[in-house]
Amino acid sequence: MRNYLTAVFLSLALAAPTALGMVYYSKEEAFELAFGKEAEIEAQPVFLSEEQAAEVEKTAQAKLDGHLFTFYVGKKGGQILGYAALESHTVRTQPEMLLVVLSPGGELVRAEILAFHEPPEYQPPARWFERLYKRPLQELKLNQGVDGISGATLSSRAALDSLRKVMAIHKIALREEVR
């Protein structure tokens, strides 16, 4: 699965910008956004059991694509700064890749669009994502605490599904490993 995500990211990153798509940040730039220049980045694969996957889907109210997931742990001086995930999904017919950054405790602290290949008017603005920070997973639902974006309903719904999935995987699988 990690190789799949890397291949998806590279295909998105290497794609030339078109009228219907844009790559904003490379993988390295994304990790710098997440943790700063001096951070050490360590990949931490998470293998979900059948039970964990079912619990993640129930908690996130979103379907998983598989049972293997990779978090990137940002560290500085041995301290964990947080966890980042590269979440790729299809919005309508084209891909989008998000950088989802969680605090060490699993709180959403940043979300950035790394690549967006739908028409630009369907893209949620940065200020929309900023309103989601530090909110509980259960509150990240369209029209149930989160306002929709006129003309970008599918994009905002797909982004919220991704954010909830990442937060649920962290809560259910990653934090269990730490215990």
UniProtKB/TrEMBL annotation:
Q: Which InterPro entries match?
A: FMN-bd, Ion_transpt_RnfG/RsxG
Q: Pfam families annotated for this entry?
A: FMN_bind
GO CC, alphabetical: plasma membrane
Q: Does the keyword Protein biosynthesis apply?
A: no
The record's keywords, sorted A to Z, are: Electron transport, Flavoprotein, FMN, Phosphoprotein, Signal, Transport
GO molecular function list: electron transfer activity; FMN binding
Q: Name one GO biological process term.
A: electron transport chain
UniProt protein name: FMN-binding domain-containing protein
**Signal peptide bounds:** 1-21
What organism does the record attribute this protein to? Methylomagnum ishizawai
Q: Domain FMN-binding: where?
A: 82-170
